[in-house]
Write a structure and sequence with these properties.
- This protein is α+β, with helices and mostly antiparallel strands.
- Helix content is about 45%, strand content about 10%.
- The chain has helices spanning about 40, 50-55, 70-95, 100-105, 115-120, 130-135, 140-150, 155-165, 170-180, 190-200, 205-220, 245-250, 265-280, 310-315, 350-360, 360-375, 395-405, 420-430, 440-445, and strands at about 5-10, 15-20, 190, 230, 290, 310, 320, 330-335, 345-350.
- Bound molecules: calcium ion.
Amino acid sequence: MFSHNSVIVVRSNIGVVDLIKIKGLTYLFASIAACVSLSACSSAPTASASANATSTNASGIAAEVNQMPDISASVQSNAEAFPMCLTGLQARARAEGLSEATINSTIANLKFVPRVIELDQQQPEFSQTFDNYFSKRATEWRVNEGRRLLQKHSVLLNQLAQKYGVPPQYILSFWGLETNYGSYKGKMSVLNSLATLACEPRRSNYFTIELMQALKLKEKYQFDDDTMVGSWAGAMGHTQFMPSAYAKYAVDGDGDGKADLWNSTTDALTSAANFLQHLGWQRNQRWGREVLLPKDFSYSHLGAKQPLSLSEWAALNVTQSNGQPLPAVDIQAALYLPAGHTGPAFLGYENFNVIMRWNRSEFYAITVGHLADRINGGQPLTVSPPEQPRLSREQVKQLQTKLNEAGFDVGKPDGVLGRNSMAGLQAFQRSKQMIADGFPSPEVFTALGL
Ligand code: CA
């Protein structure tokens, strides 16, 4: 047996790629093609409803901008249109080959849920700060519970690591973040939620497809309505799979003939590993890591679109968070500063991008990776995320307007700091000889006269 916390140098046909610290398990080192094709991977549906509902953008500020000022009027009009919409869904179901029982009984009895429309159209008034996001999710409770479950499920998790290439701590981290390790899986009727959203014009196509998939799952596995519960956006089970992800990637891990992501931990964890493999998980690599930047760092390569190899980062005097050199190898990594230059810095490897395919949020990807490290015996962050003020949408709009006026084009001010805004902000900072981290600090507001 391996001792706990053994450090194994993982090798592949591209050489030593990094150190992976693993507990009591061994790997098959043969590299495998995780995706049939890149396009198949990139088009794979995300598992989590939050990818579609509450994801955050490059700056961690909620990305979904829903211009629906009067929610009550929207709820009213959707409620009135619902019966007619159900008739259309019945026709669609018939065209997709669903049974007459499903069409005439299940669909006919679906309910409009006003709360779903309200939750879908809520606009966050303030941006999320990294400190706030991270401290609520990478909690000591989740670390300790993850470590307990690592022992409890070690046989299964080690089998999954061998078969799918995803180390135990990552599967646990997704499980912990999505549902607190299965302790809260959502209680809303998935079919009613999806029907409500399918009948709301804004994202009707997407949710109609998800509803049809959910109905097919119900037919295939004979799930009853009490079983099919989940988030308001239709995400289901221990790891919050949307129906299309369930249909494609759910696995009957315990062999009882049914892939049951609500009631079978074995099925749920196996399905998560299978899904991550299909999203492109690199079995020999970490997610990324916290790093330290040198004092004279230029910030010219920042964000997902400007990766460098670890060797190149090392040449720029970027080190591991304990001060040790980065492994001098040829894998690509992108730099993320979720709280600006005064906060922690992270390099995201290819698996960081894989986590983003599960839930399109850089905050989420960092948190999954860090929680996985902690579950595996790792230390807290070397640089604690600083407490920072939350910005209102109005403040961000003012910032964007000022940047446009100063000649740094960030597009139409929308109150959301996306990649264009960050690029414009960086250019402004450079023009003022400020640290060009693209972060909306109080100094930036002052420099823009706000
Ligand atoms: Ca099963």
